[in-house]
Amino acid sequence: MRGYMDKIVLEGLPISGGIGIGRLICIKEISYDVNTQLIDEAEVENQITDLEVAICKTFIEIYDLKDGFKGLLSEEENRIFEFYSEILDDSYFFEEIKNTIRNKKYHADNAIYTCIQKYIDCIQDSDNEYVKNRIFDLNDVRKRLIKNVYGHSEVNYEEINSSHIVAVKELNPIIAGVLSKKEVRGVVAQEGAGYFTHASIILKSVGIPTLGNINFKETIQHQDKDTIIDCNNGVMIINPDNSQIFTYSEKLRRKINIKDIDNFEPAITVDGHKIFLYASISSLKEFNIAKRINFDGIGLVRTESIFIDYNKVPDEKRQFAIYSKMARAMKNRILVIRTVDIGADKVPGSLDFYKAHSERTVRGIRRSLQHKKELTLQMRTIIQANAFGNIGITFPMVNNADEIREVKEIIKGIENEIKAENNERNCQIEIGAFIETISAVEDIENIIKEVDFINIGTNDLLHQFCGLNRKCSTVLKDNYLDPEFIKIIKTCVDCAKENGKRVILCGEMVSDPVSIIVLIGLGVKDLSITLGAFCDIYEIIRKTNCEEAAKITEKAVSSKSIEEVKKMLSDCLRS
Prior knowledge:
Blueprint: E1 2-4, E2 7-11, E3 13-16, E4 19-27, H1 44-68, H2 75-78, H3 80-88, H4 91-104, H5 108-124, H6 129-132, H7 134-150, E5 164-170, H8 173-182, E6 186-191, H9 198-205, E7 210-212, H10 216-219, E8 226-230, E9 235-238, H11 242-254, E10 276-281, H12 284-293, E11 297-302, H13 304-307, H14 316-330, E12 334-338, H15 352-355, H16 364-370, H17 372-385, E13 390-395, H18 401-421, E14 430-435, H19 438-442, H20 444-450, E15 453-457, H21 458-467, H22 483-498, E16 502-506, H23 513-521, E17 526-529, H24 534-542, H25 546-557, H26 562-574
Helix pairs in contact: 1-3, 1-7, 4-5, 5-7, 8-9, 14-17, 17-18, 18-20, 23-24, 23-25, 23-26
C-alpha cells in the first residue's frame, strides 16, 4: 500500500481488463458462529427438520437467481448455478449430514460445516486448478445453508447500482451474477477472484473490470469514497485527485464498447499486418453477438455446452440444425467446431466426484475414441453441415499423432458414406488438433503433418506446464508470461509456420491485452478471443507494431523471470 495525502493506492491481481470509475460500496458478509455444543437425543429430529428447511430455502434461492439471470449470462455461465442445484439435490450427501446429526449429536449448522469441510479438505491439495477453484463454490453453498438454518436474511443488494465499484471479502458466482446484472463499474475482492474461478468467468464475460487480492479490511474503511480501478496496471485508487479522475475518464470516453459495435474495421497493426479476430463461443447467444459484430470467424465452438443441456447425447437432427445454422450465418467465414470435451472437471455431477478428484478422468479426444458411436454421430453432423459454409473440425486434448490418424480414418469413412448418399454435397472438411497437453507439444512435428491447422489451448496447456513447475500457480494469469511457457507456444507456432499450417490461439492468454504483444511478436495472425475481451484486444492490435513486438518477444523468451517480462510489456503498453 502507498499513501499520498488522502489518496490511497492498493495493488491487486488483474482478473479482467479495463478501467472502472465509481463510488466504493462494500458488501458485508453475514457472519455466523457454528454451534459446537452437542445436542440431546430428543433434539435430533428438530435439527434434522431445520436442515431440511434450510435445503428447501436454499434450493428456492438458487432457482430464483438462475431464473433471474436468463438472458444476461450465456448458457454455459448459467450452468454454474446447476453446480449448486446438484449439491442441494444430492440425497447421499444430505443423508451423510443427517447421520452426523444422529450419530455425533451435532447441531445442524455444525453438521453442515463439518461435512462440507471434509470435501474441501479433500480437494485442497489437488493439482487441478479448475477443481481447486470449486472450493469457493462449496464454501458459498455451506454459508447459504447455515444462514438458512439460522433464518438470517440474504445480503441486501438493493443499494448497489451501476455507479458503484463493489468490494467483497470473498467473491462467489452468486455475487458475481448479481453484480453483472447490476452492471456495476468494477469489482474488487480479497478471495475468490482467481483467474479461473466461476465468479471471475462471469464478470469477464460481461466485461466488468475485476481485481483480486485486495485487502477487504483496508477497503471497507473507505466506504462511499470515489474510487478508480485500473485492471491494466493492477491498482485500486481510493480518493483519486482531479487530474487522475480526468485522465481515466478520458480513457473511458475513448474506449470502444462492444454493445455499440455493429461492425468493426479490420484489426490491422501500425505497420499494416492484419490480425484475424475470431470469437470463442459457448452458446447461440454468444454466436449471435459475434455474428452481429462481424468477427473474422468463429475460432472455437465449445460443443460440450450444447451436450450438457441434454440428459443424453443430442440426436443427429438436433446437432445438424445447430451446426448448419451457424455455417450459413457465417457466409464462408471460418467456423471451427470442437468435438465434445467432457470430463469430470468440466461437468461436476454429485459430490462423489470430489471424493475421487485425484483419479484423473479421461478427457478430450481420448474419451471420444472410447465412445466412438457418440463421436461418429457428432462428426457426421458437422461434416454434413459443412455443405452450408466453411467448417473446420478440431479435437480437444490431443496427445499424439496416432489419435489424429484414428479419427481421420473415421472421417474418411463418413465422407465416403455421405458421397454415396448425395454426390453433390461438399463433404471434405479441414481437420485440426487442439494442442493443450505437454505430450502434444512433444509430438507436434508429427501432429502438424496430419492436420490442416492447429488450435493452441493456452488454459489447459498452462495447467500442465504448472503441474511440472511447482513455483507456478494457474490462479495467477501472469504465468502465461513465464519465459519457459512462451517458449512452448513458440515451439508450436514455429512448427506450424515451417509446415505452412494455420495456428489459431485460444484461451485466456489470448484475451489478455498484455499477452497480445507477445503473441503478435511470435508471428501469430489468428486469435480466438472471448467476446468481453474484444474491445481491449482490438485497441492493442491497432497500436502494435509487428516488428517491434517481435523484438520484445525475442527478449521475453530469453528473460530470466516473469517479473522481467511483465516490466518489459508494461513499459511497452505505457509508451
